[in-house]
Amino acid sequence: MNELKTRVAYLHGLSAGLDISAESKEGKLLQGIIEILDEFADSVDSLEEAQEQMEEYLDSIDEDLLHLEDEIYESDDMCACGDEFIEVDCKGCGETVCFDAAIVDDDDIIEVTCPNCDKVVYINNDTHQTADEQEILIGKVSADAKHTDEDI
């Protein structure tokens, strides 16, 4: 910001060297413009200082919040939903949807929808499949079940 103050001081010196009378109309106008420019330079300088202080303050708040989040969530390895909940990623919007684990064992068919895009992310039917992707079971196939790789 010192550059702006330096340039205003240069203009002030230049106007003094022009030998324009301070009593003339042109002299009064030129002196008024230079004074206003000087006030603007002071104002911009104080705004820059306030902006720097605000940035430092926000950075400290951001660091404090990061430490607080680390303490609350302890680690990223844990499910964000907790132990009694199941976490499913929505194929539509990518949002992580958490729902009660008891829904899996419920006798009624329940569809779980994403609160963000209203797309079905889980259906608790007999096969326990997500709505968008069929579950592929790997294991032994009985002798009477003749499936090819194309059937799966």
Plain-language structure description:
This protein is mainly alpha-helical and 152 residues long. It has 2 domains: 2-73; 85-139, no CATH class. 45% of the residues lie in helices and 11% in strands. It has 3 helices and 4 strands. The protein has helices at 2-17, 25-73, 102-105; strands spanning 85-89, 96-100, 111-113, 120-123. A two-stranded antiparallel ribbon has the order 1-2. A two-stranded antiparallel ribbon has the order 3-4. It is rod-shaped and about 95 Å long. The protein starts with a helix and ends in a 29-residue tail after the last strand.
Short overview:
The chain has 152 residues and is mainly α. The chain has helices at residues 2-17, 25-73, 102-105; strands at 85-89, 96-100, 111-113, 120-123. The protein starts with a helix and ends in a 29-residue tail after the last strand.
Could you tell me the radius of gyration in angstroms? 35 Å
Structural class category:
mainly alpha
Question: Alpha-carbon distance between the termini?
Answer: 69 Å
Main sheet, how many strands, which sense, barrel? 2 strands, antiparallel
The count of strands amounts to 4
- The overall number of domains is 2
Strand content of the residues, in percent?
Answer: 5-15%
Q: How many alpha or pi helices? A: 3
pLDDT averaged over residues:
77
General shape: rod-shaped
Q: Secondary-structure element sequence?
A: HHEEHEE
In helices, the fraction of residues equals 40-55%
- Oligomeric category: single chain
Which strand order do you get reading across the main beta sheet? 1-2
Stretches where pLDDT is under 50 for at least 5 consecutive residues are 128-152
